[in-house]
Every structure is written in C-alpha cells, then in structure tokens.
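Hello forum,

I keep getting stuck at the same step: I have a sequence, I want structure tokens, and every attempt I make locally crashes halfway through. Rather than fight my setup again tonight, could one of you with a working pipeline run this one for me? It's a single chain of 255 residues.
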Amino acid sequence: MKNSDDVNVDGKVALVTGAARGIGRACALALAEAGADIALGLRDIDADNGMIKEIEAMGRKVLPLQMDVSKMDEIHAAFEKIKEHYQRVDIVVNNAGVAPENLAENVTEKDFDYTLNVNLKGTFFVSQAAGKMMIRQRYGRIINLSSQAGFVALPGESVYCMTKAGIAHLTKCLAAEWGKYNITVNAVAPTFIYTPGTEEYLANEESKKRVLSKIVLGKIGEPKDVANAVLFLASPAASLITGATLLIDGGWTTL
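Reply #2:
Ran it on my machine without issues. Output:
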C-alpha cells in the first residue's frame, strides 16, 4: 500500500477559463502534462497562442471554446460543447479575471460592473454549470482564482480586492453545498506573478521594489508557481481538502 497519492489527473477532463496567457495558460499546460484532456475557455477563440498544438503534442485532446465569462450565453454554449465533445467535466479552473486600476473616488460604474461581471458573476455561473454536471457524475474538482488582494488592501484596486475576497467566501459556500456529491471547491490566492497583465507595472523599478518589500521570500512568482498549486488541488492528493484558499504570496499576508 502506498503512503501517498499521486499528483496527477490521468484520464480527467479539465476546463480552464482565461486560458490564453499567463496563469491560465500555465494551468492548462500543467493539467495536460499531468494527464488531463483540456477544454480551453478563451475570450477570443482565435487567440489560443499556440496552446492547441502544445497540448496535442503531449498526446492529449483539446477543445477550444469561445467563452467570455461575462456573457451568460457563451458560458451555456461552452458547456454544451463540452458535453458533446467529452460527455463530462472533472476539473474546472476559474481563472478568468480583470483588474481595472483606479482610486476608489474615481471608479466608474462601467468599470465596477465589468469587474464584478467577470470576476464574481463569471466565476459563480461557470461553477454552477460545472456543478450541475459534477453532481450527476458524483465527482468534481473546482479551483477558483482568488488573490492576496482578497486578504490585504491594495490601494487603487478596491473593486478588484472586493471581488477576490468574495471569491474566497464563495469557495466556502460552494464547498459546503456540494461536498455530499464528492465535489471539492478550493481557491488559490496568488501575489504578484510575472504575467502579461503585470508586465508593465513590474517593469517600473520603483513599483517592483515596493512589491518585493512586501514579499517575505523576496521574489516575484512565475505562472508555474500557481499552476503547481492548482494541479495539487485537482489531484487525488488533495481529496480531503475543500473550502480552502491557498495563499501563494511568498509570505506577504504574514506581515
């Protein structure tokens, strides 16, 4: 008898939203490398950035999906295609998110609504659609993307922080409802990660210095640091973990 479970997802079907770049891309590739067939949720279905070929080269199946998670019709259509193509979904990574930066006194209603529609509404309704399939299967793994911004205040990002705090609590609520169906719901909460979305900010030496001054480990993360945690939570090794948010913040929130 083995004393540990493998960190793999052999034979599973995984959907990753916001999969075209950055953390989403890293998660999709990590899950494929670990044995899963992949559904790519893309805001622009023609912008897969070479991922289809990369995943197919690993010997995995891949299904690109037009999936702007702020649009209910695209969520529903994407899940219909998953049902037709794979007949199931075992893992969902709710990665799609936006972060318009503005001081609280200058936030517009348009930016407020858009941020909530993608980050919170999108995460909820993707989870709902997945949950319906997973309840029938009596199996599922949902991993949401929260952020350290859900646990500490970041000036100029009040709406983003609010949505990421909401995702952490939504994770607990869904875990409590769906545990009886053998569905786990967890979240990861990264710090600043080198991605296309943070490239401009971290290219500024003063900004980068401020970030590093908060990170106990003294380094900014790479997308694979988040993908590794997502893979763990999706694997049999995390079968008794649900409702948790794993901080991947280099110690920022310990200060």
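The first strand starts at residue 13 and ends at 17. If your local run keeps crashing, start a new thread with the error log.
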